[in-house]
Amino acid sequence: MPYPKGHKIKVRNKIVESAAQAFRTNGIHDVSVPFIMKGAGLTHGGFYSHFDNKEQLVAEACRYAISDTITLLQKVADEEKHNPRIHTVIDYYLSPYHRDNTEMGCILPALSGEISRSSEEVRQVFTQELERMIAFISNLAEIDTVKGSALFSTMVGSLVLARSVNNPELSASLLSAGKQYAKDLVMT
User: Fold this and answer.
1) Are 158 and 79 contacting, i.e. CB atoms less than 8 angstroms apart?
2) Residue pair 107/24 in contact by the 8 Å Cβ criterion
3) List of residues 6+ apart from 119 with CB closer than 8 A
């Protein structure tokens, strides 16, 4: 009996979602194809009927995760009625919630350290997705992309460092300082 129309696309999307969550949490190199497939509720034998290799999956997971993050940040911005919308996005991005929930967070800080050692295909997609995120942040803040790059770099760097330390007070301080600096950058 044949699968219903759209079945293969639905399965592929489940694999990409599982990969994005796994990569956000554990990075690329510490996540195996069987782990990703198990997260999607599938056996690893079917992986190659959907993807040529893990690198192709990493690229698609990056695209998916950035779209997911932009959608979330746009929703956060749209809910703001009084403060500048970019401030609300900065507050969310540099929140303890975002710091602590890596599986749903922005993939850029999660993978930045590994991408330089990835294939050219993955680096190209990561570059495109970073540019898309910078454009989103720049448009939301109503600033040029040079300033938007500095703003987003501040946000990512603050989040990476806040996630990296084992001192809760230092982590909170890094988030707070990053928020303040990011907001000041928008206002100058």
Assistant:
1) no
2) yes
3) 55
Q: What is the dihedral of CA 108, 14, 34, 56, to 10 degrees?
A: -50
Quote the Cα angle for 96-162-90, to 5°: 55
Closest C-alpha among 155, 126, 152 to residue 61: 126
HSE toward the beta carbon, residue 101, CA cutoff 13 A: 10
Mean pLDDT of 92-99: 98
How would you class 132 by CB atoms within 10 Å of its CB: exposed for 0-12, middle for 13-18, buried for 19 or more? middle
> For residue 42, what pLDDT band results from cuts at 50, 70 and 90?
confident
How far apart CA 70 and CA 105 sit, in angstroms, is 11
Backbone CA torsion sign across 68, 70, 73, 79: negative
The three-class DSSP label of residue 81 is coil
Give residue 3's pLDDT.
62
pLDDT of residue 188: 72
Q: Is the pLDDT of residue 115 over 60?
A: yes
Model-level pTM?
0.91
What tokens does 174 get? 């890094």
Given pLDDT bands bounded at 50, 70 and 90, which one contains residue 28? very high
**From the centroid of its chain, how far is CA 112?**
10
Nearest Cα residue to 24 out of 98, 85, 109, 110: 110
